[in-house]
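Sample entry was shown:
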Amino acid sequence: MKRSTMIAQACAAALVLLGGAAAAEDVSAMARGARLYDKWWAENKAPEPTGNHPLYANEAGKYDGATSWRCKECHGWDLKGKDGAYAKGKHFTGIIGVTGAAGADPAAIASAMRGAHAYTEAMLSDADLNDIALFVTGGQIDYAPLLADGKPNGDGAQGEIYFNTVCAGCHGKDGKKISTAPPLGSVAGNAVEMLHKVMNGQPGEAMPALRALDHQVAADIAVHLQTLPQ
């Protein structure tokens, strides 16, 4: 084999390996971005924000103050904002979702968050913004196959196996082991929230993010969670 051919093949192999590593880092960053989207100050240990977010538009004030600074509070767990689960009810703000940002330039999303969204460097670092932007632009998940009539669509028996081997060490098989958190059975009714947390983890906690696995795994676990005691 010619030396030039060997070099070319070695370079190609290196690019494949580097590409895989970059992809892995992106998936990890997307999961962290999703946790920041959930509750950023719990994830990055920044001070809890005070006052209302300047764009918060819930006139009833149901979730004002620090809660209004959570990305999910306006854009929803389903990322659809006023066109999704938050189209009505106590979380309604009339703000659009971020589904239209899928495939967009992450830098544009980060810039918008520094601008009109008013997130300062003391709140979210550039690295934080980059992770959120990667989640919004490249990490959105199609929940449609994982839901049926608003409930998780999966195999609860298989989900129990996953839960008992991956999750029960911290949560207990009954979902009540963590005394500072509500029983999992009592919060499992919001299927999309559960899918979000199973796939990406809980902000600021040592909870594994299962995003890199087949998404059906999360749906199966979510089905099982709804059988746990409240």
